[in-house]
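Q: Sequence in, structure out?
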Amino acid sequence: MDHHRRALQRSTLTIAVAVACLHACSTSSESSQSTTAPQVLASDPFTQGLAAWQVEQEDSSGTVTAQNGVLDVVQPAGATLWFKQRLTGDYEVRFTATPIPFTTGVFTDRISDLNLFWNASVPGAANADPTTKGLDGKLASYTSLALYYVGFGANNNTTTRLRRYDGTDARPQLAGYAAPGVATSEDKSGPMTAATSLVANVATKVRVVSRAPTPDDPLTLKWYANDVLVFSYADSAPYGSGWFALRTTSSHFQFRDFSVVSL
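A: Exactly. Output:
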């Protein structure tokens, strides 16, 4: 009898240990998966100057500095800041941008033009790098490129638009929000909202997603402001790699926490 009782106790203990091990292994696996972070492909803490950027200014009196964790951009006219590293694959650009009221002889407390280029290239060129063209900061000088463009809070914070430059002067618009009085037939997303507008001295957290389509998700680009999806698009001939740029005109912005992560 004792022999059978001891055998039963050993069997029960073995099962309990196996169940405990299975639970621990499962918990460990789930914990490992949940803490896996995206790979950082590029970043700039804005403490070491402008070595990672190429600045193109329409007006040379504009200033761009990177120190103490802040990229400070003050521009009386158009300016483009190219990130020199080419981006490719499935990635997400992340940063925050704070508009500071800007005053000149023309503008008073202007808040406008948090604009971006991404996956930019020189179409048909042996060297596709747009930073080698020495462009002058005027918006019209970039129409020869292939790229995606978002003008967020542009035109004195009255429009937010997505374009797909195709190397011509057409600058095709894919979607857009606009305030009454400035809206065109292409602004099919509706009027401006809190999610599509700049606020003075308040940071906007931007995320730009570039990805290959999948059977479950055909979208090739996604553009977020403060985690709200502002634009998405499934491009039948997507620009899958290229160069990224911050762009603005007649404004003052402070940028922080710039990084590019894998998806």
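DSSP finds two helices and 13 strands in the chain.
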